[in-house]
Specification:
The chain contains 4 helices and no strands. The chain is globular.
Length: 86
């Protein structure tokens, strides 16, 4: 169910905000390196089925860059660094 998925994602926002506020991104399970293959699959499947892949591909690029920068064991909250003004 679409709305159930949205509710699940929204339920994670407080913990993501807490990680960002503490500036602590590492997680014991489910680091970005574990998510990257799934995001790559989503991009590939989107292309195969003619679905617009701009957002999944953008997400893949952000996750891949974070992993390459040494943040493979961090959660998605690490990606906020990409959007901070320097």
């Amino acid at each position: 169910m679409f709305f159930g998925g949205t509710e699940t994602v929204l339920s994670y926002l407080p913990s993501i905000a807490d990680e960002i506020d503490r500036d602590e991104y590492a997680v014991q399970y489910g680091g970005l390196r574990h998510h990257l293959p799934s995001v790559e699959d989503l991009v590939r499947e989107s292309r195969t089925h003619g679905i617009d892949d701009k957002f999944p591909d953008y997400t893949r690029a952000l996750v891949a860059a974070a992993v390459e920068a040494g943040h493979a064991d961090d959660s998605y909250s690490r990606l906020v660094e990409h959007f901070r003004k320097r």
